[in-house]
Amino acid sequence: MSPPQAPAPLFLLNARLIDPGSGREMRGGLVTLDGVIAEFGESVRQGDAPEGARIIDCAGDVVAPGLIDMQAFVGEPGAEHRETIASATLAAAAGGVTTIVSTAATAPPVDDPAVVDFVLRRARDTGRVRVAPMAALTRGREGREIAELGLLQQAGAVAFCDGARSVRSALVMRRALTYARDFDALVIHFAEDPDLSVGVMNEGEFAHRLGLSGAPREAEAIMLDRDLRLVALTGARYHSAIVTTTLSLDALRRAKDEGLAVTCGTSINHLTLNENDIGDYRTFLKLRPPLRHEDERKALVGALGEGLIDVIVSDHDPQDVETKRLPFAEAEYGAIGLETMLAAGLRLVHSGDVTLTRLLEAMTSRPAEILGLPQGRLQKGAPADIIRFDPDAPFVVDPATLHSRSKNTPFDGALLQGVVRTTVVGGAVVYEE
């Protein structure tokens, strides 16, 4: 078999270039060559393009690093009816996501090096964008016995998380953090006390009006506070997967002020939606953690703007019709989000709550820094994972046109702004509008 040919040189001209990591913004062009960024800035001219190069006039659109989504379910192995790596990466490319960090919540779970290898091979053979697998923190994601973190890391796992399951035992969590510290591995944890969080939506007046059981915000804060104390005890690197309350934000601010190696994320859903959007029992908005009160949402947006919240994730969790078209209390948790994460995030930019550079930083350079990935920046020699998008172009979200195998979008029928025109991975165009 002959080796694959390198993509032709690519010239993106007449662009608004934004490098979120450095905060630089300029007008000009960008050149990719042999899979990396060869040049960018005002000096790039069409006349410099060699024979055979592809030239794209961006007509003033934004050109930025491709998005890195730190939490997405890709379906394989075991849930191909909900999603496949092929369909998930197509949806990602259409949404400007060039790297997916896949969750370990598969069947079997990603708790064995062979499963890590399977995900990487499937992504290589069928994927359009990069897939970086997370592995399980505990065997079987059961929270009782630590997984072989060292072997899983050698196999290609970029972080360790049990998905939307908290490790109940403080002793097991301490051992996992200590073990991970010795490998300089990143522990990502879903902080929620499972004994306290038994409701199906946020606890409060709105839940009472709907006649639904509520989960208190303290369920998140109690578990996160325990984790942060264990991080102080062990010195491990820790990332809170999704924070949704002011109680959690206060705890994280104290931990960061103390110099602990902690970071956190939140989902695009919790930044742009609140519990009132559930309306008349809309199951596509049944999420875990639940959508919170509007005051909590505003606090999250403020924390994102100041940098307390490090990253934004899609929390892409496809569910099929049989598990979502049910009474609210019986429906499964989860929503798709890969394809709409950027456009939904631009709501915050258009409202003046967050700058475009800060939004992109939380979706590109910051997750790259936390995970130790070379992507997520506009720099010479960096991987040519690039997106071109028009931040002002409007569109109505139609689930039928989304590329995910499942259609459970919380933005069904919403008017959003921000259309991805071109997605480039390793210098190759993998999606065009």
TrEMBL record:
It comes from the Bacteria. Keywords: Hydrolase, Pyrimidine biosynthesis, Zinc. The keyword Zinc applies. The keyword Hydrolase applies. Residues 351-431 form the Amidohydrolase domain. Its EC number is 3.5.2.3. Residues 60-245 form the Dihydroorotase catalytic domain. One of its GO terms (molecular function) is metal ion binding. One of its GO terms (cellular component) is cytoplasm. GO terms for biological process: purine nucleobase catabolic process; pyrimidine nucleotide biosynthetic process. It is an enzyme of class 3 (hydrolase). Pfam families: Amidohydro_3, DHOase. This is Dihydroorotase. It comes from Methylocystis hirsuta.
